[in-house]
Fold:
Amino acid sequence: MADTRHAHTPDVSFDGGDLDCGNGLLLLIRRHIDPLDRGQLLEILSTEISVREDLPAWCRMTGNELVSVLTEGRQASYLVCKGALSERSIAPATAHVATRQEIAPVTIPDVLPDPAPAPAIPRFAVMGMGSWPRPRWMVQAVHERMQGRLAEADFEATADDAVRLAVDAQVRAGCDVITDGEQRRDSYASFVGARLDNCQLIPLTDLLPLVDDPEHFAEELRALDVPAGEVRHPAVFGPLGRSRPLALHEYQFARTLTDRPIKVALPGPYLLTRTMWLECLSERAYETRDDIAADVVRVLREELAFLLGAGVAIVQFDEPVLSEVVFTGPKQARSFMCGALSEKGESATELAFARDLVNAVTEGFPIERVALHMCRGNWTPDETKCLAGDYTPLVGTLAAMRVGTYFLELCTPRAGELEVLEALPADRRIGVGVVNQKDPRVETVDEILAKARHAARLFGGDRVLLTPDCGFATFADNPVASAAIAERKLAAIAEASARLRA
Structure:
């Protein structure tokens, strides 16, 4: 190199070798730059010639500053500042040289806890699906933590306040089963990527170079009303591990606020496998989708064991992408951000894969305390942008899954008729969606009663639970209802439930 040293000393350096931006280099850059403070410097070593054009474009798109470039033959050294160099107000730390192979060791518990007793969930029990609209200050805290601007302790204290509000609202509304409102999560699914070992959340825009046609994919996102710059996607760098809980800490705090049964929702194993397996990456931590699925199952079984061992009444696995499997073709536009970059196979193959993954997670656990939820999309209140189709092509798969309760979208006409579900096993409960969380109109108690009574006639009252179709705020940035409307809808369900029980 003509100049052998940059004018500024990097805080962290790593060698990207011959990776280009479309084959994983951006993921490695994100892995090393995200932990830095704004104003700190990252050195990227590369022998790939295309990076000289692609990296400046990435810096402009992400708001980071390309400070300097040194080249000698094919070898280049790029110095990138997180944010602007003008934000560098502290003395640089001693440079740390990182490698592409740095991964955390995976620890597997020797023994998993046995389930502890939990309060029974009565017939016609009322509960939300999981998510609750976050206050504006909570959404800001989520973003500041992801950007490294908010300390973990400060974030948790802020989240505790938000959970208090969410739990209080559900108690006021008369819910029989409480959730923490998923206040600590950026979304119902991707939050796992920030808690698992060797996994990290990165902006979806970083992954656009990995798809075959980035412009077409970006157009699909715009059509789906999805802000790609605000959506984060899990990127896997090594073997997945669970050195800290995914949601156990959420339950433990919520338990201090109420003595009512508590439900915890987790992304299902098929959803996580679809999301985390990126076949378009040439350098990836797992050789096949089956390989990553095995570790996804393992970490979910660990989490499930600790949740039930702590006394969680019911653990719900969210598998909404099952509807994409049967209601979209291979050439149709995407309908979910989760799994938007992944490959999917023929419908029957995917459904069998999902069934086997769910059963592998729940095997050996009490069936009455595990559940499955699915819907047809919940990122926008615009019903025309969501999938439509009844449960006929899914009933066989649902029936073969080892879960004790199905929480299903059923209020919207897009979901078809209840009668289709009579084919489900008679020993399973059905959480019937009786209000549409997307619709700002609060359904009347009589409307809810009519739906609930119809379900009771079909399935028997002991099998029926009453819920909204989906969560009120699946994505932190994109709630489909306000907290006031959400509380009124749950209160209407609770009044209907009280009449039914009477």
